Amino acid sequence: MPPAPPPRSPLSFAAVDLGASSGRAMVGTAGPGVLELREAHRFPNRPVRVGGTLHWDVLGLYRGVLDGLREAGRAAPGGRLASVGVDSWAVDYGLLDASGALLGNPVHYRDGRTAGAAGRAAAVLPPEELYAATGLQYQPFNTLHQLVAARGTPALAAARRLLLIPDLVAYWLTGEAGTELTNASTTQLVDPRTGDWARPVAKAFGVDLSLFPPLRRPGDPAGELLGEVLEECGLAGPVPVTAVGSHDTASAVAGVPAQSGRAFAYIATGTWSLAGVELEAPVLTEQSRAANFTNELGVDGTVRYLRNIMGLWLLQECLRSWEAEGLAPDLAVLLREAAKAPALRSVVDAGDPAFLAPGRMPARIAEACRRTGLPVPRDPAETVRCVLDSLALAHRRAVADAQRLSGREVEVVHIVGGGARNELLCRLTADACGLPVVAGPAEAAAFGSVLVQARAAGAVRGDLAALRSLLRATHPLRHHEPMGDRAAWRRAEAAVCG
Fold first, then answer.
1. How far apart are the C-alpha atoms of 12 and 9, rounded to whole Å?
2. What is the tens place of the pLDDT at every residue in 218-262?
3. Which end of the chain is more exposed for a tag (fewer CB within 10 A), N or C?
4. Which whole-number Å values give the CA distances from 400 to 277, 432, 493, in the listed order?
């Protein structure tokens, strides 16, 4: 049966994108030769510490989602939404009882409850065997480690459903439960070769996979907005919900405006920097595990082969510390001053777990410089320059390692996400990598969500390359050519790597 003809006019789609510090509802309009995006609503994401445990305020987030869908409906031409998609950060989850009620606010991945869980996990299954089965990099907060830490707790004992954060939001919107695959691949319970559960791993750790609802893939239907949601948001139904790359990085990589036939690396920048290459199959070698690369699943059966880097979290935490001290620095001014500061005077390992927890970031950066014998930043501008030089250096190492370990040589680096707006970071990354950098779009996750929804609705057609071609043709991008002293970056890398 031939595919249905595309609609005569573009359709509107809501992309709900939940980040670690804020959430947003974006409205995308897509059709043949048309791709537009606007922000309908933005709301804060403020974790809450209660009884010594750091939680997500997931009900507050859901309130923001409902407000965002109301504003998205108002912003959409004709007031109609053709679909809704939801993405968020990875690894965290909510537990539901037999009635579908939430058993407490989800625990934040930065909470300290997983301390020691990796060691207990290694006693069950050696790290090299776990990597060979799941291809997931070591992170202390991986879902598997969270479940190891939660073993024996009343909430886990009472749970009848486990929903990752975007699946939880989609469940509340539709009443239908599913587990979207790109995000499930971050749990360390999925086999990246098959795109199905790694059942021997789950059995070894005593994880009941029946807690997870059936797997969905990007583009699959995920239900329709409930009547109460339509009424709350002032929307005319029916409004379907479409599974997108519900791990925000999966949507962001789908939103990389790569040119067909040109091998590329990507860096999805925000609170984290996720730097790597897109592959057709996972890399499960011991060398890959030792380099702490991960194999997460992407849109259209792709593999996101990447390394997690601490990202702009370092800068965000510095700003919070200075504000708490009453300095209230202006970021634009700081960036201008940082651009004039001495290059590579002070660098740190941006992937160091010592920077994972919040608080005292400028002091911890200074302490790291002292440990390696490098000059301590003398003021906020030099601290910002240290952060950005260090991030660019981490990008350099990740891009080089991704090529070496995968055998995929690249010609260009695409920077998407919030860091694409940071011109100094983009320029430094081009210099550090010795490769051209294409910066933008900043809202790549929302674009990736809209493109997957639009294709599912028949508003656009084609494979992932065709979707990216539409994005590239409709949006301006910034280009940065590598400049500067390559030897200086090699010396800085040697200083950080010992």
1. 10
2. 999 999 999 999 999 999 999 999 999 999 999 999 999 999 999
3. N
4. 10, 10, 12
Q: Are 18 and 86 in contact (CB under 8 A)?
A: yes
Q: What is the Cα–Cα distance from 65 to 173, expressed in whole angstroms?
A: 9
Residue 9 is predicted with a pLDDT of: 78
Q: How far apart are CA 188 and CA 175, in angstroms?
A: 26
Locate the DSSP E strands across 280-373. Answer: 294-297, 303-309
Domains located in the chain, CATH noted: 11-246 (3.30.420.40), 257-440+477-497 (3.30.420.40)
Contacts with 485 (C-beta within 8 Å, 6 or more apart), sequence order: none
- β-partners of residue 88 are 247
Q: What are phi and psi of 173, to 5 degrees?
A: -75, -30
Determine whether 94 is exposed, middle or buried from the number of CB atoms within 10 Å of its CB (0-12, 13-18, 19+): buried
Active site residue 248: yes
Contact assessment for residue 317 and residue 323, using Cβ atoms and an 8 Å cutoff = no
Does residue 81 contact residue 450 with C-beta atoms inside 8 Å? Answer: no
Q: How far apart are the first and last CA of the chain?
A: 61
In the set 87, 191, 248, 431, the catalytic residue is: 248
**463, 349, 471, 490: which is closest to 28 by C-alpha?**
471
Instruction: Tally Cβ neighbours within 10 Å of residue 51.
Output: 5
Position 21, amino acid? S
DSSP assignments along 134-188, one per residue: H-PPP-TT-HHHHHHHHTT-HHHHH-SEEEEHHHHHHHHHHS---EEHHHHTTTT
- Check: CB of residue 32 under 8 Å from CB of residue 81: no
Cα–Cα distance measured from residue 7 to residue 463, given in angstroms and rounded to the nearest whole number: 18
Omega within 30 of 0 (cis) for the link into 441? yes
Digit-coded pLDDT (tens) for 136-183: 999 899 999 999 999 999 999 999 999 999 999 999 999 999 999 999
**Tokens for 339?**
């651009």
